[in-house]
Design goal:
Layout: E1 2-5, H1 11-23, E2 27-32, E3 37-42, H2 48-55, E4 60-64, E5 84-86, E6 89-91, E7 97-101, H3 108-120, E8 125-127, H4 145-158, E9 162-165, H5 172-178, E10 181-184, H6 192-200, E11 205-208, H7 215-227, E12 233-237, H8 255-262, E13 267-269, H9 272-275, H10 281-290, E14 295-299, H11 317-330
Parallel strand pairs: 7-8, 7-14, 8-9, 9-10, 10-11, 11-12, 12-13, 13-14
Antiparallel strand pairs: 1-3, 1-4, 2-3, 5-6
The structure holds phosphoenolpyruvate and manganese (II) ion (MN).
Length: about 350
Amino acid sequence: MLIVLKKGAGEEALAELKRELERFGFRPHVSQGVETTLVGAVGKGPTPEIMDHFRALPYVAEVIRISKPYKLASLEVHPLPTVVAFPTGKTGGGHFMVAAGPCGVESREQTLTAARYVKKHGAQMLRGGAFKPRTSPYSFQGLGEEGLKILAEARAETGLPVVTEVTSPDKVELVAEYADMLQIGARNAQNFALLKEAGQSKKPVLLKRGMSMTLEEFLMSAEYVLAEGNENLILVERGIRTFEKATRFTLDVSAVPVLKSWTHLPVWIDPSHPAGKRDWVTPLALAGVAAGADGLIVETHPNPKEARSDAAQQLTEEEFAEFMSRVKALLPAVGKAFHATALR
Ligand code: PEP
Ligand code: MN
């Protein structure tokens, strides 16, 4: 349920309400607006009697049942957009970010080269997988901790924060030591043990939509992270399975406006994995931006032909530069603020 406090209800009333909610087994989640204070109470479905109990408190204006199955992710509980901030930029609430880099960390040279040029062309974050969740057990699985060390070196040199995938709950601590944001991939989007563990870490989380997940299921996965007290969460639409085989996945552009009407969390587009082919990456990114996305995560490789994963979809440096200039040209039309990386 959602509890709206009366105007002027002070700190003491809020503290008392929190204690009362906890006594009934609810987890309070305060959302402080300019005029009103909202308290989301998350827990097992409140009975009409319990709702009446809270309605009767002198400082309570209104008690509303949260209609959606996801609670903390909903705009009902949290009407203001969540802004996730990094030293190089912000996303959400009108702020736009680009994370770019290779699919996988393959070598020091490959990753440092990519980091330098993605920064030069304005990206605010470096991506790169050290643990790769591959469909085949015989494919390149990533460099593991050595890859994380290379990413940390790239960050030290360029100042770009790093987002990298974590594929199992027992690796969260290790990946969090090196990464600025934990990526949970499409194949793990309903790995609830992993979502909980990532929720418990203090690092921001980038959660990709599973390839066969409904948007409601996607937000239920987000709820696992939020329920652990981690509010720095970004959702990524990266393409879903449909009957169409021309592209690798079908980018569900409508996920952007739908999610933005249901949740306060920033919504990003990954144009690389649905395209599957470099020629289609930029148009899909532009479609996502036009639909209202708060950021992009895109793959680029200094020498895509030699990439050990996703070779066909990674942009060359030249293509990435063109990608950035087209994205930057579109952003003002959709009212998004973008500040390319400050060079240091
Ligand atoms: C990736 O970003 O390299 C990746 C594996 O993405 P997804 O989980 O969306 O397939
Ligand atoms: Mn990839």
